Amino acid sequence: MAATRVVVILAVAAVTLCGVARADDRVSVGTTVHTDSDELLVVHPAATARIELPEEVHLSAGYQADVISAATIDVRTAASTRPFEEVRHGASAGVELAPGRLTTLTASYSLSVSPDYLSNALSLRLAQEDDTRTHTFTVGLAGAHDSVGRVGDPRPTGDAFGVALSARWAMVLCPEAVADVGAAVEHQRGFLESPYRFVTVGGAGSQVRLPEEVPDLRWRGAVRAGLRWALAAPLFVRAQYRLHVDDWGVLGHTFDVAGHLAPGPGWRIMFGGSSLAQRGATFYSGRYATLPDVPVLRTRDRTLAPHWTLTGRLGVRVPFARVGGFELGARVHARVDWHRYFDTPVLPERTSLSVGLALFAER
After folding, report:
1. Which site among 82, 109, 179, 311 is 20 to 30 Å from 240 CA-CA?
2. Which residues 6+ apart lie within 8 Å of 206 measured at CB?
3. How much is the pLDDT for 159?
4. Distance between CA 236 and CA 228 in Å, rounded?
5. What per-residue confidence (pLDDT) applies to 82?
6. Per mean pLDDT, which range of 137-141, 196-200, 324-328 is the poorest?
7. Cα 149 from Cα 114, distance rounded (Å)
8. Element (H, E) at 12
9. Is residue 129 a contact partner of residue 136, using CB atoms and an 8 Å limit?
10. Cα distance between residue 306 and residue 281, in whole Å
């Protein structure tokens, strides 16, 4: 598989570079497999590297791919009755600087390429600690441009632009606990529809099939609060609540709990779970029955429907040996998601499973 070969090449190059780098170097290469009850299979190979250079400079790079095989109802009812296969590629690069003892500046770029999609994204993040290192303030700015098309159609479909601003404050409550709060706002404009999704509108004894139509502008906002707590020497837990809202009428509440247990040197057991309850967009409907009138806004995107999601996660980090100052080991993880979509005639429930294995070298 071409994507896997690229991952291996990147991993070998990263290990070679790490041979001349300093402490805090990390290399990871692995694959995750995702499947669900909607006949979707995704193989996701990935490789990442983080290298520390002199003068408090860190470089990072990554490559990932999605090898997709799907007969999903979302696609079959929207574009075709046939399953499809597709390969998507992504790459990223970043640099982290420490211009001051308590200041960190990070810049990153990411690229995503698929047969019908091209995305370029840039982000900047500035973190500042106070003199007592009790408070940390972080601000971030990100921008993205997406070019959307259709497979086999040379005509351009549309472009989408996005910009996001975020802020976060973390405070050390005591040696065992850290609290943090944050907020973010995002603005999107342009072609925000799926070029493959069609909506059936019925009524008056007939029906028509029309392309999806959503607003060309979208404002999104989120606030969150969290607590990280070292319950005991080997046990660490984190709890977080997040509220998100947009001007399309979507409103969601997310509760997330995670933690890890360190039963021995280098060993780590990670666990977690989350719950999302979301109100749908005001223009979403499971069935449009308005003929002879046609709704100006219409969608069958289940992410815009009212829904409830439960997630469970489990992972293990296993060290193997130390070679040349590097700790070698593996990470194994699994994730289960259950979705219940309301006002959704087709496939109102979906269950997905993701399992992955990654090899790493760290020092």
Report:
1. 109
2. 291
3. 96
4. 7
5. 52
6. 324-328
7. 10
8. helix 2-18
9. yes
10. 8
Select from 274, 271, 285, 272 the least CA-distant residue to 339: 274
- List C-alpha distances in Å: 169 to 136, 226, 237: 6, 10, 19
Q: What are 5-22's pLDDT values in tens digits? A: 444 444 444 444 444 444
Q: For residue 255, give the CATH number of its domain.
A: 2.40.160.40
Q: Give 308-335 as a 3 state SS string.
A: EEEEEEEEEEEEEEEECCEEEEEEEEEE
E strand spans, the chain: 26-36, 40-53, 57-70, 84-100, 103-114, 117-129, 135-150, 153-174, 177-190, 198-203, 206-211, 217-232, 235-246, 251-261, 268-279, 307-323, 326-341, 349-362
Number of domains within the chain: 1
Count CB neighbours of 57 within 10 A.
12
pLDDT in tens, 257-291: 999 999 988 899 999 999 999 999 999 999 999 99
Identify the domain containing residue 273 by its residue range.
2-362
**pLDDT, position 14:** 43
Residue 4 φ/ψ, nearest 5 degrees: -65, -40
The pLDDT tens digits for 69-106 are 876 555 444 444 456 688 999 999 999 999 888 999 99
List Cα–Cα distances, 85 to 35, 111, 147, 356, in angstroms.
14, 21, 20, 21
